[in-house]
Amino acid sequence: MLEGIVRESIGRKAAKALKRDGYLIANIYGKGLENIHAAFKVNEFIKEVRKKTTLAFDVKVGSQTLNVVVVDYQKDPVTSDLKHVDLKVAQKGVISKYMVPVKITGTAIGLKNKGVLIQSKRRLKVKCKAENLPNFFELDVSKLDVGDALLVRDVVVPEGVTILDADRIAVVGVEKAR
């Protein structure tokens, strides 16, 4: 489990000092909860996020243990180092909005017919309870030929989950190479 500290002062000077010491600045929030200003060791946070098997994972900040989902992060444009991360608490029984990744499986037929596979949506916005939250959406592209596409309405959605993106938007498609 990832352990972090609660930041007492939230000013720029204190944040710079924490970053110098190898900490990642984080904000943790949720419906009906007070925001928690936290900091995690950068390397420990990256290891935890890479080894997690579900979209939500546990963190311990101060005395409380929270089940959180990564909502947003900021990277340094030059060094690509993580600068800041936003975490949303996945509360049981509370309907909330999440971004769920899309995984592509198979090899499209259109790739052999001089086509290029283009994934236009890497994550889909969903509305559901934390216990119904899918880890990812899996799309099989093996039947796609040049000019074909899989739309949001073609995604198989588990019970209790609603996709908020428009159903006519293409998630992945095969286009003719130029």
UniProtKB/TrEMBL annotation:
GO terms for cellular component: ribosome. InterPro entries: Rbsml_bL25/Gln-tRNA_synth_N (IPR020056), Ribosomal_bL25/Gln-tRNA_synth (IPR011035), Ribosomal_bL25_b-dom (IPR020057), Ribosomal_bL25_C (IPR037121), Ribosomal_bL25_long (IPR001021), Ribosomal_L25_dom (IPR029751), Ribosomal_uL5_bac-type (IPR020930). Keywords: Ribonucleoprotein, Ribosomal protein, RNA-binding, rRNA-binding. Residues 98-177 form the Large ribosomal subunit protein bL25 beta domain. CDD domains: Ribosomal_L25_TL5_CTC. Gene3D superfamilies: Ribosomal protein L25, beta domain (2.170.120.20), Ribosomal Protein L25, Chain P (2.40.240.10). Residues 2-87 form the Large ribosomal subunit protein bL25 L25 domain. It comes from the Bacteria. Belongs to the bacterial ribosomal protein bL25 family. CTC subfamily. HAMAP family: Ribosomal_bL25_CTC (MF_01334). Part of the 50S ribosomal subunit; part of the 5S rRNA/L5/L18/L25 subcomplex. Contacts the 5S rRNA. Binds to the 5S rRNA independently of L5 and L18. This is one of the proteins that binds to the 5S RNA in the ribosome where it forms part of the central protuberance. This is Large ribosomal subunit protein bL25. It comes from Campylobacter taeniopygiae.
